[in-house]
C-alpha cells in the first residue's frame, strides 16, 4: 500500500492535501506533516494544503489559497476524514486521482486508493510510519516542523497518551519524533491554553450538567448561555470531556446549539456510541462520535438511546 501511494506521488507534479472540516490537531498534523515530508523530499513538486482555517490552531499550519484550475491533473490526498461530506474544500473531487488515508472505520470507501488503519492512534502516526517506509526505500526526508506537526497530531488524538489507542508503536514513534528540534513546551502551551471566557464556561458546565442512571451525563448549551460567556459553539465544544471523570459515568453527550442546528458530541467509556451517532446524521469512533440534529425532541431521543446503551452494556 505504501509503495502504491509513493508511486502515485512520484507520478504527479501537483499534490493537494485535504483533511476534515473543523480540524483538530490530528487533521492538521497529518495534513501538514505529510506536506512537510513531500516538500522536503520532492522540492520540484508543487504541494498544497487546503481547507478552512481553525483560529485556535493556526500555530500548527497555515492553509494555501489555490484556484480551481490547480486541481486539474493534480493528485489529491485526504487525511483523517472518514466520509466525503466531512472533507474540507469540496473541490477535492476535481482532482485527477484521489487517495484516502484514515484511521476511522472505512464506511465511506471514497477515492481511487484507500489506506485505512483503524489500529493507528492517529493519522499522524500513520504518516510517520509512511515516512519511515519512504526513508528506507526512497530517501524520504522529514523536517523539524514536520516532526512537530506529527507529534502534535499524535498528542491530540491520544489525549496526551492517555487513551488506550496509544500503543507501544505510538510511544515509539512519539519518542523518535521528540528527537527533532522543536519547542515542546510551546506546543503544549498553544494546544491547551484556554481563554478566560472558556474557563468560566467550564465552571458553568461542571455545575449544570445532568446525570441520570445508569451512567448518562448530558448538557445542553444554548446560544444564550454561550453569548453570556462570550464563547463560540466550536470553542464550547472543547469542554466535552469536562465531567468525564465523574464516578459512575459511562456515556455522555454535549449538545451545542447553533443558529440552524444542534451539534451533538457523544463520548463513552464502554457502550458503543457511533451507532447512535449514525442514527442522527453522524458518525465517528465507537467511543467518540458526533452528529447533528434540529429539534429538542431528537436530543431527548439521543439521551434515551444512551440510557439504553448503558443498560445493555451492564
Ligand atoms: Mn484522527
TrEMBL record:
Domain of life: Bacteria
Domain DDH positions: 14-154
Pfam families, A to Z: DHH (PF01368), DHHA1 (PF02272)
Residues covered by the DHHA1 domain: 222-307
InterPro entries on file: DDH_dom, DHH_sf, DHHA1_dom, Oligoribo/pAp-PDE_c-di-AMP_PDE
PANTHER family reported for this sequence: BIFUNCTIONAL OLIGORIBONUCLEASE AND PAP PHOSPHATASE NRNA (PTHR47618)
Protein name: Bifunctional oligoribonuclease/PAP phosphatase NrnA
Amino acid at each position: 500500500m505504501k509503495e502504491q501511494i509513493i508511486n502515485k506521488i512520484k507520478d504527479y507534479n501537483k499534490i493537494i492535501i485535504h483533511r476534515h472540516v473543523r480540524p483538530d490537531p490530528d487533521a492538521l498534523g497529518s495534513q501538514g506533516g505529510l506536506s512537510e515530508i513531500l516538500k522536503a523530499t520532492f522540492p520540484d513538486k508543487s504541494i498544497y494544503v487546503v481547507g478552512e482555517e481553525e483560529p485556535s490552531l493556526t500555530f500548527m499550519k497555515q492553509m494555501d489559497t489555490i484556484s480551481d484550475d490547480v486541481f486539474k491533473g493534480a493528485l489529491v490526498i485526504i487525511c483523517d476524514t472518514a466520509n466525503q461530506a466531512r472533507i474540507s474544500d469540496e473541490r477535492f473531487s476535481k482532482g485527477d486521482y484521489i487517495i484516502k488515508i484514515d484511521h476511522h472505520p472505512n464506511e465511506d470507501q471514497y477515492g481511487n486508493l484507500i489506506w485505512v488503519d483503524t489500529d493507528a492512534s492517529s493519522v499522524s502516526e500513520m504518516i510517520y510510519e509512511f515516512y519511515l517506509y519512504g526513508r528506507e526505500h526512497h530517501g524520504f526526508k522529514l523536517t523539524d516542523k514536520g516532526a512537530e506537526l506529527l507529534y502534535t497530531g499524535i498528542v491530540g488524538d491520544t489525549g496526551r497518551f492517555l487513551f488506550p489507542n496509544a500503543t507501544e508503536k505510538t510511544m515509539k514513534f512519539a519518542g523518535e519524533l521528540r528527537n527533532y528540534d522543536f519547542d515542546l513546551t510551546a506546543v503544549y502551551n498553544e494546544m491547551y491554553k484556554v481563554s478566560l471566557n472558556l474557563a468560566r464556561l467550564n465552571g458553568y458546565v461542571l455545575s449544570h450538567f445532568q446525570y441520570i442512571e445508569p451512567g448518562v451525563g448530558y448538557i445542553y448549551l444554548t446560544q444564550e448561555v454561550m453569548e453570556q460567556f462570550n464563547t463560540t459553539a466550536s470553542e464550547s465544544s472543547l469542554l466535552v470531556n469536562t465531567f468525564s471523570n465523574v464516578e459512575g459515568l459511562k456515556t455522555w453527550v454535549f449538545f451545542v446549539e447553533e443558529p440552524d442546528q444542534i451539534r451533538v458530541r457523544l463520548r463513552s467509556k464502554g457502550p458503543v456510541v457511533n451507532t447512535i451517532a449514525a442514527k442522527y446524521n453522524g458518525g465517528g469512533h465507537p467511543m467518540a462520535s458526533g452528529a447533528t440534529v434540529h429539534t429538542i425532541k431528537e436530543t431527548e431521543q439521543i439521551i434515551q438511546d444512551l440510557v439504553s446503551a448503558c443498560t445493555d452494556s451492564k
